[in-house]
Fold these 2 entries.
Entry 1:
Amino acid sequence: DLGDMFVATIGYFNVLPGGINTIPCKVEYTIDIRDIDMERRAVGIQRIEQAAAEVAARFHVTSHMACMKKTKSEKMSSRIMETIEAICRRDGYHYSILPSGPFHDTLSMASVCDVGMIFVPSIHGISHSPYEDTAWDDVFAGSQLLLDTVLALTEK
């Protein structure tokens, strides 16, 4: 019930001592938790902490969570995003409006200028992975969309 914009990704697991048939004495992991709404993100974090505490209590172990970095999301410029969307419609590009987490260049840029983002699809939806790949037709389409967007924005 947190909605489609709340995302939690476990990207690292370290199970100690790491033996194939050894019960772990310690498990470390990272969770990247994102949402464009900071209040909803806070609720999601509380729920994850509560679930971890409940599992720990059930198995008579301890659980500890620490925030490594907290970054607020930035809003995309409606002017830029509307321009991108209009060009997608005009040129027949298939598109979706996606929220983006805070760790792109837009986080730094948003405090000094309007920002917008264009994503191109990854083959089989695999991204942020050594297996990530993008079809050259999509790279070309994304590049053309970027050029057309910059030209359209400079005309306004």
Entry 2:
Amino acid sequence: MWDLKCCPIIMITTMSMTLLTMSVVIMIEDFILKALIMGLVFSCLAGPLGSVMVWRRLAFFGDTISHSALLGLGLSLIWQLPSQLILSLFCVGLAIILTLIPFRSKVSIDSILAIFSHGSLALGLVVLALMDRPPLSLTGFLFGDILALTWEDIIITALTALGVGALTTLFWRSLLTTFISEELAKSEGVPTLAIKVGFAIALGLTIGLLLQTVGALLMTAMLIIPASCARYLSRSPAQMVIIAIGVGALSFVTGLWSSYILDTPTAPMIVVSALGFFILSRLAYFVKR
């Protein structure tokens, strides 16, 4: 069950996020408003997924899928198929493969992730280089274009967040038991392999649907950094998820605001904001100890 006890950190984060959101909404233009809404919705999606990735030390798992997605995107352009569909299928398929491979491999998981990440990224670059006029630059792939969002992008993200949130709530106990102690989960009759594959599908679908919008850098950073911040500030897994959502949302708000004021690139500024919150959470952890 979810532990929904409020803590001061969550309240402060929520109040700060709300005040910043109100101040930004009053004076920003439409394209920044869309980016802000996307950031808040994406944070609700990244909180649960990122927390599980931090628990299981799967930071490079998301990185591998994001980098490998360049190959799927290149293939969709060559075959002239819908890029969103092919990219989503590619990421989901790769996530399932990476989940199942360790069961039958003598190679360590970090080596497998490195092989897939660098190999697929290189193949993707080769595929794009073979095109006369590739419609995608490496910069666009890494950083996306969060200021060029459409309402359709936001709706897709919101629906994905609702689906992931509903499934996380429904299978919370099984998910928690599986990723904290797989032996205990098996003894309780939890289908651990199905839980792992389900998580892989959710993560792959999220990356596939949003990669072209937010970019590979922002995608992996906002999955891992807010959850890592929450690890220092939380006392239970449920609190960690809630705080990760709050830190992610606050990072988007402050990053967009700073980018707007300083006229700097948006996606890197959001990541820098998240990094700042991580440093603060680390300091708070040491002070508390």
